[in-house]
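Re: Re: token formats

Sure, here are both.
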Amino acid sequence: MFKGGIVGWNDMTDVAVDKNGIIFVSSQRGYIEIYSKDGEFIFEFGSYLTGTDIAGIFTSLPTVAVDSNGFIWAADGDKGYLQSFRPTDYANMIYSAMGLYESGRYEESLDAWTEVLRLNQMSMLAHNGVGKALFHAQRYEESLEHFKVAENRDYFSEAFWEVRNEAIQKTLPYVFLGIVILIIVSVVIKKLDKNKRVEAIRTSVSDRLLDTPVLGDVLYMFRVAAHPNDRYYDIRVGNVRYHKKKAGYGHGHATVIGATVIYILAFVTYMIYRTGKGFIYQYVSVEDMDIAGTVAGFFVLIGLFIICNWLVTSINDGDGNLKTVYMLPAYAFAPLMVGMLIIVALSYTMTYNESFILTIILIVSIIWSVVNLFCGLMNIHDYTFKETVKSIVMTAFFMIVAVIIALILTIMVEQLLNFITSVGRELVLNVI
């Protein structure tokens, strides 16, 4: 067991270690893998092939050994002969750079790793070596880019902490000065604005935003997040504008168009959360994602919930119609959307040590949105707590049933198409 995990694959057959602690592992796949003494993968060579005698290719690779000169000896178990391999200059440079680093000679190891990088600009191992050498030389900002290329998030986090700490020390006095100035300006405005004209202007701007078509309907989701029971009751009774004006809550209200825009914004927010976080917390790239599948899965899941909940509540005497059920989840999304955007923003300023803060934000935003959704179901359908729980369980059950039926139908249609295709081919070959 090493820092980087367990050396070798499940099919490893033998292990050898040279005088410098470099580890050599043979595998049934015919590959010889080479690791540092900490378990960091360096490179591999070899291959598996039968029926030919080519150097570096094995039919069977049961054992590997290394001598005092660094020569690698490997036996082909099926053919019964030995193969020997001399380390190249490139390999020796890597071993030398690793040895210099491990002995604490960081400046010399930096020169050695730089030379390795000159020979192979795409070497993640060399970038990692350069990054660690720069890190120990306290050249933290320079090391960040190399750790990023090497995808070494642990060291990147440590180096970023040092860079951030230095930036905080430089900017903290200005931040405090700015806060003091804002407080003074705020106090002065309150003293001078005895007729509350500034407050009236702010309220006027807010009302105009809420009166803007669609925009005000989208912003209404924040009213729902603040007072879910009241706002979902407004949605249920339908006389939203009257209730909102009477309570002094502005002029926006829930609409189908507003809910549709929120669903689109929710998906965009989700994609930003999945692909837009800072390097330390970003493990998924857009190139590795199935965008079409993600889009379909997101909207199909929401559509299934809406349809299944409407069917369930129609049977169980719920007051909500398809229109209100359609709007219900959208106006519950605000806390989760804001939480995800906050996480994305903070991920560029936090290290691994503060990851618990991002986790807390995500958990709170999910719980808040779930509570909003629960309050919405209870108010839209005029249910008791127990009836709401029952409707959620039944909705989940029908969603699972719908997915199973869809999978069965998909398999049946594929088999039918394959059958028709096969019959068509037979007709073309034997009849026509």
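Second one below.
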Amino acid sequence: MKRLIHFCILCGFVGNSFAQTETFDLVTYTVPKGWKKRPAESAVQFSKEDAAKGTYCLIKLYKAVPGTPSSKENFDLAWISLVKEKVTVSVAPEMQPAATENGWEVQSGYAPFENEGEKGIVLLVTSSGYNKMVNLVILTNTDAYEKDMASFIESITLKKQTQTTNKSSSTYEKNAQEISAAKKDGFAFTTTNFDDGWNSTVQEDWVEVTKGNIKVLLHYPKEGTIFAADPGPLTNAAWNILVAPRYRDIKNYKTSSIITYHRPYLGMGYATENVTGKNVFIVFFRQGNSGWLEFIAPDKNSFMQQYKFDPETIQWDSNTDLLIPLANMVGYNKFAVAASDLKGKWTSDFTGIQQLYNVYTGQYAGMNMNQSNEEFIFNAGNSYNWKLLVVNGMVGNAKFTEEKSAGQFTVPNNWQIYFSKIETGPRTFSAFWSCIKGARVLNLLDANAPGSGIYTKYGLAK
């Protein structure tokens, strides 16, 4: 068995395909004759077995997913999510020398496994490049399919890619409007290219989101831009701080709002950009607890083509549904997570208080309190400590509860974090970073129990 594994790994992901080939995602390969094929959206699987002898071989090729700059880190993440979560492996994989071809670096290793009493060998080959990784997993309990396995691996070629940063779509069209270079802030990902064509970059004072000839600035909170006031004075004050200094010759400026629960405020006008000298149409927007958003288009018609309404016609009784596409832009303050980002203590606090009164007498009946503090401490070697403190009950008779866990974490696909133990067992969280001035916020949501879909936000403790 070991001879077979060494031979297969030496073939690597760099061979030339021959005979009739197939393509799955970024990979071209030749399938040995007589193998059963089972395609799926995220992977394609090939298998062969001898029921009489109880022998089998299973080959599973996975679709490319976002990866970190480190090929070994990608292999380690894939080993946990694609191997250890599927079968029982009691030892670390025996690694083979890395190989590089066409910008792809291959890390490979194997180990004995056990699954429901069956024993065999599992082989993982992870090919990393262009901020992506492609994984191949082989499970077998026999040398009988050595020739077919070797032929399959030898036939594999990966497409050479154009280098991009955290690209979440396989196609990309350059924006007609220039995209500002992302600000380097010490995190692995400072750009996100969304599947719907919007592209976000981290900037000093905002997140810049672009698509075609539309640019949207998701401004970070700034003193003097949010305070209790009527729509006109508040919008004017925020405009003068966040918008006006970057333009000249501002014309036809006006403000408006809609009277509703999440009262949306708008400012708009025509102006000339100080830096480029271009004439643009600007819409300035805020709703509820969101920050200020600045929409920049070459003219009003371009804005209307994208957002399907004329902002200059908005008044107090307009339909608030018109502004939903504007409000949804806050969701583009979203950046992928790498394991190297997770350092130090990240905490989240919650406090809720209820003042109680007797329904018959109207007299004060006490106060009910709910408080919680949750923290993740990320240590060296991908280890962590987790703690949750909860206090609830009537003031003077509140109860205190504490839960603790510790273990290893991984980042299997840059949008999730896997923890080996939270309370009673392993747990995977959907995860992303959002940006504020000079810092990031960690957003986590239990992937298996998303509930309302609202992420819990964690800040870095000093």
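Residues 339-460 form a domain with the Lipocalin fold (CATH 2.40.128). The first strand starts at residue 22 and ends at 24.
- S.
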